[in-house]
Write a sequence for this structure.
């Protein structure tokens, strides 16, 4: 009695090519789903690969193409060193970016950076580990991002687009968004607006500028600007202290972010204040959590999902050597229950 020798395991492109009766190059193109291989042959090779559990050697492929298959997602926290990646805004944007990158076959290297050295971004882009970099928030690091963007093309940031800016950025028209928030509060009868937010980040500063413009157009005094940091371990204490000190001087609040606004709702409830009856509150972002607050949060929407897709599209264009301009998205007032 004879037994057939065990089938050789399929470990290489050549092994799979032998089974399929084609060249290794045809196998490589079929597994990459290239249209150069006719659909029937592509399907047959892909089915054989699945049947034998074959996966191409990604490291060898990356060496051939001089690509790492990895994109860096970097969160610089120069202005807010105690902020966490668990911040709901970061998590929302990161989720959309991760979906877009992984659906295109890329891995992600996530870095939360405290920029203690002036060359922090140079170290990341020159590491040789990445095909490109997405920066979430410009923080107070505009100079560093601009310097690197002069020589490193595959870099896209979420944030503001300023006159003469070199680096590609995707973000919302923050001044216009702040103006929407201010105008909505004023239309509700608010005459003494407070703005909650620390102004070193360019986006927050632009939102404050917009609220100020709305007040000025209505002949009202400039909003009372109250620093409130985005670090979760400080935010509630700071906002509570502001309410104790200033609540008799204000009758409406525009917050620089939804997280600040949601914390404000909780603080006001603790002080026995009704929202919007005593103090209407408007946020900025339109995070998914804005629908879960009590009352539901009126806010200025920036289209985070669209922005994430635009960031990834711009990055892929730049990786391919093409140009990709910045994108400024229009804000939209979303009226719910808090104002």
């Amino acid at each position: 009695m004879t037994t057939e020798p065990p089938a050789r395991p399929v470990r290489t492109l050549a092994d799979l090519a032998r089974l399929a009766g084609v060249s290794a190059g045809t196998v490589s193109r079929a597994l990459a789903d290239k249209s150069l291989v006719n659909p029937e042959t592509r399907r047959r090779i892909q089915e054989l690969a699945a049947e034998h559990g074959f996966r191409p050697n990604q490291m060898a492929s990356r060496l051939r193409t001089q690509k790492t298959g990895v994109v860096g997602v970097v969160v610089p926290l120069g202005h807010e060193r105690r902020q966490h990646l668990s911040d709901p805004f970061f998590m929302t944007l990161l989720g959309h970016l991760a979906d877009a990158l992984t659906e295109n076959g890329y891995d992600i290297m996530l870095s939360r950076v405290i920029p203690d050295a002036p060359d922090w971004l140079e170290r990341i882009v020159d590491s040789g580990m990445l095909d490109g970099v997405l920066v979430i928030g410009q923080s107070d690091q505009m100079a560093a991002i601009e310097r690197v963007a002069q020589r490193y093309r595959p870099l896209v940031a979420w944030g503001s687009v300023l006159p003469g800016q070199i680096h590609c950025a995707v973000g919302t028209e923050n001044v216009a968004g702040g103006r929407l928030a201010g105008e909505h509060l004023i239309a509700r009868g608010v005459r003494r607006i407070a703005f909650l937010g620390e102004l070193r980040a360019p986006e927050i500063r632009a939102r404050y500028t917009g609220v100020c413009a709305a007040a000025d157009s209505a002949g009202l005094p400039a909003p009372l600007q109250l620093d409130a940091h985005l670090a979760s371990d400080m935010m509630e204490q700071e906002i509570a202290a502001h309410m104790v000190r200033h609540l008799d001087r204000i009758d409406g609040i525009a917050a620089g972010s939804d997280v600040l606004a949601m914390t404000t709702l909780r603080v006001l409830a603790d002080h026995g204040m009704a929202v919007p009856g005593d103090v209407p509150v408007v946020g900025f972002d339109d995070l998914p959590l804005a629908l879960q607050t009590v009352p539901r949060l009126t806010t200025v929407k920036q289209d985070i999902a669209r922005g994430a897709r635009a960031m990834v599209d711009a990055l892929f264009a730049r990786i391919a050597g093409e140009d990709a301009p910045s994108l400024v998205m229009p804000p939209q007032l979303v009226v719910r229950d808090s104002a």
Observations:
- The mean pLDDT is 88.
